[in-house]
TrEMBL record, chains A, B, C:
Catalyzes the N-acylation of UDP-3-O-acylglucosamine using 3-hydroxyacyl-ACP as the acyl donor. Is involved in the biosynthesis of lipid A, a phosphorylated glycolipid that anchors the lipopolysaccharide to the outer membrane of the cell. This is UDP-3-O-acylglucosamine N-acyltransferase. PROSITE patterns: HEXAPEP_TRANSFERASES. InterPro entries: Hexapep, Hexapep_transf_CS, LpxD, Trimer_LpxA-like_sf, UDP_GlcNAc_AcTrfase_non-rep. It catalyses: a UDP-3-O-[(3R)-3-hydroxyacyl]-alpha-D-glucosamine + a (3R)-hydroxyacyl-[ACP] = a UDP-2-N,3-O-bis[(3R)-3-hydroxyacyl]-alpha-D-glucosamine + holo-[ACP] + H(+). Residues 22-87 form the UDP-3-O-[3-hydroxymyristoyl] glucosamine N-acyltransferase non-repeat region domain. NCBIfam families: lipid_A_lpxD, PRK00892.1. It comes from Aromatoleum buckelii. Homotrimer. It holds the Pfam family LpxD. Keywords: Acyltransferase, Lipid A biosynthesis, Lipid biosynthesis, Lipid metabolism, Repeat, Transferase.
Length: 339, 339, 339
């Protein structure tokens, strides 16, 4: 429970209305009730302010007079909401110590928590206050920075590095072998040992069941502040720049480099050995098959249609080249006539 | 081993031929032999009846006279087959009790099975006959309804709810944080605490390595009778209506609502904040980028071509707008001439 | 550390330059330094030879005189590189034995390694030198051939078979139920028991978090020498021929058969009940919706564009059929005039 004046003291913003108004959680404009602090981040929802039952509201300067509720005015209400939500919902406090059903083969700081069923191999270095969830496996020689938290059943392969204050969700696999094989003439495959590591920066979040492969010769590198959603696959020797965010189910093939502050939409794919510069946005479902040299938004996906319409329209895609020939033929006749 | 008259007594249907015919498993028309009960569900396979070596056959009224084999006539042979297969293959019977290598921090019913390496946190409620597979992690305050079975290495995060008679396959992760961040001007991300839950109804099946994120403020909700295949990603605050079935590798982004009895094909994607009504079918590989307001089948995927043809045809997609301009120009000249 | 003459003695090839040259690891042309053995596999990189700091180089006969460095000349430098890399980086040597925090309910050979937190059910058969990583779950009646290695948190369901010398990466799930349900008139689903197995050949590699479902009635079969990357989903009753390689995030729906020596690009999808012959290459991101009867390369994906261009061009896809009608109308007028 915070009073509005306490919030403004900690997080800034201009306070209008009763400073003693108490709020105990954040909520959407629609669902907020007594004791809730709502927020208006997107002007298109401002009509919802009228009926809002919140005790107070966070809003932008342009919206300051749209309600008589106690309110906090701030340049970016969504960021403010995020910070208030963090105040109301601090990260879980873990009791330090090693669960008796964990297996730990390296010396670790007393501030570390290791849950039931976790196993930590030899030569592992864990920073202060690291949390290793139940069933996690930390391979030989791996390093995890202070304050990082691994949820359940996370696997960190040998020698991989995770920075400080990272969050890794359940089932993620960091450092499995990259998909590297040389092909014999008869089609059989000779495995290329994958001797690079995965090196992950600070303040990175990695979603559930996401996989990041170790490098073949050099390392796979994930920059500081990168946010990865669930079920992402990152191939060997990929490099991802700082603060890039990648939505669920994206696949990035080997040796591709992605710049800083990119945003990659869900189910997008990026083939191998490409370069994508900083500040690129790739739309959901888009397969990137060429390097992207200029910042901007890039898209390649199809409009959904009713199935019958789709059958009619898309049959022509097989014959687009012939269609263009027919147009050219029509144009040429015109040309001849014009002459 | 069942006699045909025993099957008909339990499951209904009309019996033709020797009621004492004994069958001990179900099989396809092609592979069935002595002691097998085959089924003809799809009329296009009826030519296979002639050579079928089964001891008996399940078929529809229209096909009743297509064989002289002992047979069960029923309106829906595929449903009948499913029910016979369930009789022949009852779910594994687990011995109740907690394995000595499990860690259980909540009181649980005596009828529950907890396998080796599983860990159950405090304040967890498990219904009667729940089975917790090896290596599963049940977070603080989670609830799992009677008769539900979790296979190996499943993670249920804190406070999530799984209904009765659910099946969750290995590696599934229920309740990891949704992908919610507010973006600062400098491109850095402020985490929005994900304080909602995942609430899963009764009779739901969840495939291997599927992930369902907890809600940001409200809950993510999966309705009764929903069937989810493997490697599906469901974002925060998604709602899925009763009996909807979703095939493998589908991604559904945050805050999207899907109606009841929908069928979503493999690798389809649905972007966030959409509404899809009841009884919608989405074809495999289709990315849905707009709400769907009417029941029906919706599709957006490409015809596969030999690579050389594809190169020829698809190059034109970049210039479709110019192509349309050329057609328009041709039409306008015609217009002018006609005048 | 190997001398070049030792390498040539073991692996063949023609040695030019000082046979006593010692190398201790492999590296790319760009990054190689003192003590490194670099390789030139792709002629387009041959300009990098000049500045290469390696102690020696592997190259093809055509490139034999492009450097004065000590070198090994061989028909396929990439295969040679792979084999040298294997010499320099032999697989980890595991100490045989069962970790005290593992649960083993079957008799196993003394040469087997079972790590912490692993659990092995009854009636399991493990070959010599099998390695079961931490947190793996081997179901009742499963069999794993000699020399196969499972990384952490792998789940093998009951009765499944893994061949010899396989590598299975963390989080893979072998043998979960296929997605098999019969649909009642009211839209509810009746589960069809999945009683087939997964049968995996020898020398197969399976990537992290990849899932392979057990067969419904018959088995799902993965041939010898198949290589599967991460996050692949393989449905029930799929058959994959020998030495086929499949990149990350591919989904293959039930009952599809894929030939030998195929290569399937990342994020490709193949719908169910298809047949794909030997030696087929499917490009990344391609959804295969028909059987492929002839070897060759097959593609269906879209060119990426800047978002504004894409909006302009792709709007027309909804109207392609009408566009073709307009072209036809133009052609018909021409025809009439010509007559």
């Amino acid at each position: 429970m915070f009073r509005l004046d306490e919030l403004v003291e900690r997080l800034g913003g201009e306070l209008l209305g009763d400073p003693a108004t108490a709020v105990r959680r954040v909520a959407t404009l629609e669902q907020a009730g007594e004791g809730d602090l709502a927020f208006l981040a997107n002007p298109k929802y401002q009509s919802r302010l009228a009926a809002c039952g919140a005790s107070a509201v966070i809003l932008a300067p342009a919206a300051r007079d749209l309600t008589v509720l106690p309110r906090i005015v701030t340049a970016d209400p969504y960021i403010y909401f995020a910070r208030v939500a963090q105040l109301f919902n601090p990260p879980e406090a873990f009791v330090p110590g090693v669960h008796p059903a964990a297996s730990v083969a390296s010396p670790i700081p007393a501030s570390v928590t290791v849950a039931a069923g976790a196993s930590i191999d030899v030569d592992v270095e864990l920073g202060e206050r690291v949390v290793i969830g139940p069933g996690c496996r930390i391979g030989r020689g791996a390093r995890i920075g202070a304050g990082s938290r691994l949820n359940a059943n996370v696997t960190i392969y040998h020698d991989c590095v995770v920075g400080r204050d990272c969050i890794v969700h359940a089932g993620a696999v960091i450092g499995a072998d990259g998909f590297g094989f040389a092909r014999e003439r008869d089609g059989s495959w000779v495995k290329i040992p994958q001797v690079g590591r995965v090196v992950i920066g600070d303040d990175v979040e990695i979603g559930a069941n996401t996989t990041i492969d170790r490098g073949a010769l050099d390392d796979t590198v994930i920059g500081d502040g990168v946010k990865l959603d669930n079920q992402i696959q990152i191939g060997h020797n990929v490099k991802i720049g700082e603060r890039t965010a990648i939505a669920g189910c994206v696949g990035i093939a080997g040796s591709t480099t992605i710049g800083a502050r990119c945003m990659i939409g869900g189910q997008a794919g990026i083939i191998g050995h490409l370069e994508i510069v900083d500040d690129v946005v790739v739309s959901a479902g888009t397969l990137v098959t060429k390097s992207i040299r200029r910042r901007g938004v890039y898209t390649a996906n199809l409009p959904v249609q009713g199935h019958a319409e789709w059958v009619k329209n898309f049959a022509h895609l097989r014959h687009l080249d012939a269609l263009v020939d027919r147009i050219r033929a029509l144009e040429e006749r015109k040309e001849r006539k014009a002459r």
